[in-house]
Amino acid sequence: MLETVAQAVINGLLIGGIYALVSIGVTLIFGVVKIVNFAQGEFVMIGMYISFYLATQFGIDPILSLFVSMPVLFVIGVLVQHFLIRRVLGPNDMPQIFLTFALSLLLLNLALLLFSANYRTVHTSYSDEALHFAGLYIPVAKLIAFVVAMILSLALWVFLHTTDLGKAMRAASQNRDVATLMGINPNRVFCVAFGAALALAGAAGSLLMPFYSAYPFVGQVFVLMAFVAVVLGTLGNVIGALVASLMMGIAESLGIQFVGADSGLIVVFAMLLLTLAFKPNGLGGGRVR
Amino acid sequence: MANRWKLLSLAALVIVPVALPQVVTGAFAQDIFIRILLFSFIGVAWNLMGGYAKQLSLGHAAYFGLGAYTSTIMQVDFGISPWIGMVAGGIVAMLASLPIGWLCFRLRGPYFTIATIATAQALMLIFLKFRDFAWGAEGTTIPNLGSSPLMMQFETKASYYYVVLGLLALGLVITYIIEQSWMGYYLVAIGEDQDAAEAIGVNAPRIKRDIYMISAFLTALAGTFYVQYIYFIDPATAFNFSISIEAALVSIVGGIGTLWGPVVGTVLLETTSALLQSWLGSSTGGIQLTVYALILMAVILWRPTGLIGVMLEAWQRFVLRKPARVRTSP
């Protein structure tokens, strides 16, 4: 029994690392640019297809293709912010929600047109490898994904807290007007934030590829998880999103273990509804960052 | 002069839709008309809350599905006419909107939207899971009784057309009444700035609750009609996310928070979709929503007042010959 629980917790923790990359991206954009990016999951999908094609066409290891998918998605992020998002920033919710929503719809259906609805997988030498430790089973591909995800999250935190640009981003998230008065160029900061968030989504896609199938709708699973984690972890809070994502991963895995294989999503929705009912400001109590 | 124009356009508004299925009798065309009227109606229902009060729900499939399932369960298990089931479905949806609204209205803006998506998806999962209660994932066909108007089953497509035309008329009349009443002004005030509206004494939580109930009721009627029209129900049809999307899309493209916006938007989107289908065949999955997404982006970036806004502007400039108005965002 204890072993089953421990195994479920480990499985959840490992996939929670991927959820964290997506959630941190969502919360970073929400914190700095003050919009919710409904298309975040579709950028995970793009990251997966980049890794898939690099692996099948050039034999590049999916994890190493991170060095391609991250910069490509960073550039896409800057372009999206500069040419699309920038035009709808303002007090009005409607254009912001439906612009990113339209972007999600567009990318999803373009993927359907270009790549068809087929599931694509990449088989690596370590896809089936696993560590055995005290009776527990730890898949190597998921362990690598988790470790890299944590390193990237830590790198983002260090960037936000030590570099001038990172501090400017935090300043802009706390008070955009004052930050502008202090000589911070908001559009530049927003572009970097959007780019960084999408780069994390791309990294999530590449890290998923050794043990997960790519298909046009794949991002929806992750973005839903991320939205819940971002509410749970207090909107705009990077550490909160990270912790909440790991918790969500564990909760989902325990749900699958003890309620049934297809109940993962039900657990997620139940968590969202409970959060809304009892802690609508998140577990952190409402303080941003 | 102005009066004569008004009378003429009013007469055209009544005569053209009523005469249409008598003039155009092709099954394919009539099917498209029915889709246009149905999605206009769903858009009108969405627009009451999403358009006037700017509570941007993407979970209206929840009420569509509840309406569809209520009437179908009543008909298949108890033999009760879908006409009664339709009203019952509307009431079920109204009651369901209370707890759902209680949860979702705790959040504002985009997070309200996400919460509505999640509740609709959760309802779909519930109907997928509990198979002894509503047929589970396989769904069920609705017994075909031939021509049986009392059971909302007709031999001709034209009859279905008139039913959904009646629904749309009902939705438009309700919207018009609300638009003209104090409630309409409260809704717009909440949509502009909820805090400011509350500061001047608008009871925002109550107004939002009430309009959500009305919107849910109307959406459920559409659900009943749809499953009666296609004679089949399963969770993926009744709670399809694309219903939530289209409800919002037609309103925004047509003109958010306007009486006729959802109708104009549906005419454009459904006609585009029908043309694409006849040109490319239905085999190319994804093309329809790709085009919808592009239209939506174009409207948001260049004409946030929607097609109604474009038409009004053109009317003022070219017919009334007034100088161009300064465009205001919705």
Question: What would you say this structure looks like, in words?
Answer:
The complex is a heterodimer of chains A (289) and B (330). With 289 residues, chain A is mostly helical. Chain A has one domain. Chain A is 71% helix and 3% strand. Chain A has a two-stranded antiparallel ribbon with strand order 1-2. Chain B is mostly helical and 330 residues long. Chain B has a domain of 214 residues. Helix content of chain B is 75%, strand content 1%. Chain B has 15 helices and two strands. In chain B, strands 1-2 form a two-stranded antiparallel ribbon. In chain B, helix 2 crosses helix 12 and helix 12 runs parallel beside helix 15. The longest helix of chain B has 27 residues. The two termini of chain B are 30 Å apart. The model of chain B has no long low-confidence stretch (mean pLDDT 87). The chains are: A mainly alpha (289), B mainly alpha (330). At the A-B interface, helix 4, helix 9 and helix 11 of A face helix 5, helix 12 and helix 14 of B.
Tell me the strand percentage band of chain A. under 5%
Order of strands across the biggest sheet of chain B? 1-2
What is the overall number of helices of chain B? 15
Q: How much helicity do the residues of chain B have?
A: over 70%
- Main pleated sheet of chain A: 2 strands, antiparallel
Largest sheet entry of chain B: 2 strands, antiparallel
- Overall strand count of chain A: 2
- The averaged pLDDT of chain B comes out at 87
How many structural units, i.e. domains of chain A? 1
Uncertain segments of chain B are: none
Strand tally of chain B is 2
- String of helices and strands of chain A: HHHHEEHHHHHHH
User: Tell me, what's the shape of chain B?
Assistant: globular
Helix content of chain A: over 70%
What sort of overall outline of chain A do the alpha carbons produce when their principal axes are compared?
globular
Termini separation of chain A comes to 38 Å
Low-confidence stretches of chain A: 285-289
Backbone structural class of chain B: mainly alpha
Query: What is the gyration radius of chain B calculated from CA atoms?
Result: 20 Å
Average the pLDDT over all residues of chain A and give the rounded result: 86
Radius of gyration of chain A: 19 Å
